[in-house]
Amino acid sequence: MSRDKHVLSVLVENKPGVLSRVTGLISRRGFNIESLSVGPTEDPTKSRVTAIVNADDVAYEQITKQLHKLVSVHKITDLTYDNAIERELVLFKVNAPAERRSEIIEIANVFRANIVDVGKSSLTVEATGDEGKLKGMEDLFRGYGLKEITRTGKIAMARNSKEV
Amino acid sequence: MSNAVKHSASTDSKAALTVAKAGAPRGLGSKNPKQGQKMTGAEAVIASLEAEGVDTMFGYPGGQVIKIYDALYNSKQIHHVLARHEQGAVHEADGYARATGRVGVALVTSGPGATNTVTGIATAYMDSVPLVVITGQVPRGVIGTDSFQESDIVGITMPVVKHSYLLQSVDDLATTFREAFHIAKTGRPGPVLIDIPSDIAGEEVVFNYPDDVNIPSYRPTYRGNAKQIRAACSRIRRSHRPVLYVGGGAIISGAGEEVAELSRMLQIPIVTTLMAKGAVPFDDPLNLGLVGMHGSKYANLTLNKSDLIIACGARFSDRVTGKLGSFAPDADVIHIDIDPAEIGKIREAQIPIVGDLKGVLDSMITAFAKSKVKPDTKAWLEQIDGWRKRYPFYDTAVVEEPNRIVPELALAKLADKLDPDTSIAVTEVGQHQMWAAQFLKCRKPRTFLSSGGLGTMGFGFPAAIGAKVGCPDKTVVCIAGDGSFQMNSQEMATAAINGIAVKVVIMDNRALGMVRQWQKLFYHQRYSFTELAPNPDFVKLAEAYDWEGERVSDPKELDAAYDRMLASDGPYLLDISIPRDQSVFPMVPPGKALSEVLGAIDRNDGATRQIPEEEAATVKVAPEPSDEELFDIEDDAEADEKEDAR
After folding, report:
1. Domain boundary among A26, A49, A82
2. A17 with A74, same domain?
3. Distance between CA atoms of B90 and B99, rounded to whole angstroms?
4. How many CB pairs lie under 8 A apart between chains A and B?
């Protein structure tokens, strides 16, 4: 089955400009990056870029082949089909008049999310999880009015301690 | 899961060995006489180039590279050719690299100097030419502040380099140069840019040039997978209508002889792309020559009707395949390329082989020699022979005109004058380029240089200068159009001052011929801004730069004019006046299938060009302008009258 979305994990040199090489190449070849996150790895000379790209299988293969040609790219792993763990962190600033605070806190507790800031008329909730869980929370919070959402972009890792 | 992931993830130790060998410094490496000496960064730049064995470079000085130029002043090893424009310098380095197979080196300053190299770098990138381009940069402390002559050249060139470096410390300088040359030359070659902040050029360092290169993330696969090669041999044996589709990779890999050998041994016809011209001798009986948009009808038929395409360092460019959906519908594809990303990019390959073409073909030749089996291609070759006889490339009866120089014949005549063993032809981009590709005779690789991928007008002339610098014993002829030549004609000074004896033949139709041809055929003869008349007087331009030059418009004088050009010692410009409305045929219209070719000659049809009715009906020939119209030179009498009137 072909998918139109792919999660790719790219291990790159931790050097200035490398992220722009990777993202530039993906967009130059005509593909859209839906989500992106970058951070250092256990090896300080390397960083990991996790990107979700809108591309079918054939296009995805071309992207990975082109990425491999970048001298700064060490390794690419396709986490689309793998039994992979995907997580994302989201901050929700929810409309919360004093009388409804407890309802929102209750919802947050159900989703094992944290209240990280309380204002006069809003609550800020920090949540991590997979796409389904975060979507569920977002839908519920929309009922109260969402002032702002910020998300980190997905990170992913293969299960079974398979080295990525 | 993609092939690429598998290929690159496997660090085959044998492949790694080959890489190390291929990347060994061509110069003295760590054995260079300056090793261990204390010097400035600028001196280390020059010492690094010397350690790589660089003896020729092209460039243009400026504020942020003064220190490097100062160090260059002392070099006894490096001959620096001063261009007249940075674009010229990069194309010159490119021509040098294409003609010699070595890495071309260009040195320019920051800001505008650097941005002027972009077209040159992109040209080299598209045609896989190894270059090291060194740009000056503003000092580290002011990068990002829009300081004078600052440009983010690493950022600007990112999509068109194989790799690039913004040097961060003088301690990384030698390693960076070693890596840059290694990356430029190995695998699928390409341009590498090194951006050097000028304060680094002033810092002190103990020069320590490394021999080894260790880039774990860069290990091109040289050795083809044995199982895949076996599968390919088996598929070839079972084929009935195979064709070797040969691209520029055959020249880069030095695999021309292997291609010819496999072809001869198994009786498989060869078609070549523009970039592969010269990989196989033009007179090899199985070489059908140019394929694609302006290739012969028989070469295109052969490719399109085949049941097996053996792609050798070729990338199924749109200029070759035409409309992809109708391209070679019955063919399986064996795709041999050192770049895994080319395989399956355009056309699915049933048998992909990632590796160095020469080695892969060599394995196939050995395997077939041992097994003694081969495909039966007799009927196929007979059919091709029939096409070849029926659809000749040209027929003098069709193209000849008694009083005008027909470009096809002009190129055919030039082909007869040039010794394929001692000449290099370099083209600009346009109609003349296609005529040159159709008619020039090449027997050796690296003797036909042309901007294929990017199609850069302005490439040919400086590239010819670079080729002549690299191969001073060869006759280097640049075939140009009047449009292309004017894009970098300032390099005439470079040739004159350095005594670089290039010969420039301008196929002068006072128009942007190729675009005009499209306007004529597909845009209802609306010649929107493709007239270049009145051109400058190219012969006077030649004189102004202290070149020899002449103009010829009578076909009877062409022979003698070529002879004079080839006999002269210095740079020479021959301006050949050709009819304005000559089209390059055959032509596969853009976006059409290879089978929908226009203007092929059909001997069964009274040897005329086959242009379909609707197209032919719209072809109007504009009247040729007179010399007076072309060259606005005041007559003496007129001038006197004006004088009197005053």
Report:
1. A82
2. yes
3. 14
4. 65
Using one digit for the tens of pLDDT, what is the confidence trace for B533-557? Answer: 999 999 999 999 999 999 999 999 9
Decide if B10 touches A, using CB distance below 8 A: no
Confidence at residue B581, expressed as pLDDT on a 0 to 100 scale: 86
Which residues share a beta bridge with B371?
Answer: none
- Tell whether the model's pLDDT for residue B394 goes beyond 90: no
Least CB–CB distance from B1: residue in A17, A72, A78 = A78
d(CA B319, CA B424): 24
Q: Which two tokens stand for residue B317?
A: 């460019």
pLDDT score of B627: 65
- Return the closest-CA partner of residue B573 out of B482, B497, B463, B487: B482
Within its chain, how far is the Cα of B25 from the centroid?
A: 25
Please indicate whether, in this complex, the C-beta atoms of B217 and A13 are within 8 angstroms of each other.
Answer: yes
Query: Which percentage of chain B shows pLDDT scores above 70?
Result: 90
Chain A residue nearest residue B187, CA to CA: A69
How far off is chain B from A71, nearest CA to CA, in Å? 6
**Domains in chain B, CATH or no CATH each:** 3-206 (3.40.50.970), 226-390 (3.40.50.1220), 396-585+613-630 (3.40.50.970)
Statement: residue B19 has pLDDT above 60: no
pLDDT number for residue B365: 97
Please give the structure tokens belonging to residue B533.
């008349």
Which residue of chain A has the CA closest to B221?
A69
Judge if A118 and A101 occupy the same domain: yes
Same domain, yes or no, for A76 and A93?
Answer: no
Cβ B159–A66 below 8 Å, yes or no? Answer: no
Contact predicate B541/B515, CB 8 Å = no
Burial of B567 (0-12, 13-18, 19+ CB in 10 A): exposed
Rounded CA-CA distance B325/B328 in Å is: 9
Q: Which of A66, A71, A78 sits opposite B341 (nearest CB)?
A: A66
Contact B216 A24 (CB under 8 A): no
Strand A114-118 relative to strand B104-108, pairing: unpaired
Q: Is B324 on the interface with A (CB under 8 A)?
A: no
Interface test with A, best of B156, B183, B218 (most A CBs within 10 A): B218
Residues spanned by the domain of A77: 5-82
How sure is the predictor about B473, in pLDDT bands with cuts at 50, 70 and 90? very high
Q: Rounded to whole angstroms, how far apart are CA atoms B300 and B279? A: 18
Of B489, B457, B485, residue with least CA distance to B84: B489
Quickly state the pLDDT bin for B88 (edges 50, 70, 90).
Answer: very high
CB B26 within 8 A of CB B52: yes
Q: pLDDT value at position B317?
A: 96
The pTM of the full predicted model, rounded to 2 decimals, is: 0.90
Q: Cβ separation of A28 and B159 shorter than 8 Å?
A: yes
Q: Is the pLDDT of residue B630 over 90?
A: no
**C-alpha closest to that of B89 among B61, B55, B65, B48:** B61
Same domain, A141 and A92: yes
pLDDT tier for residue B412 given thresholds of 50, 70 and 90: very high
Percent of chain B with pLDDT over 90: 85
What is the distance in angstroms between the Cα of B346 and the nearest Cα belonging to chain A? 10
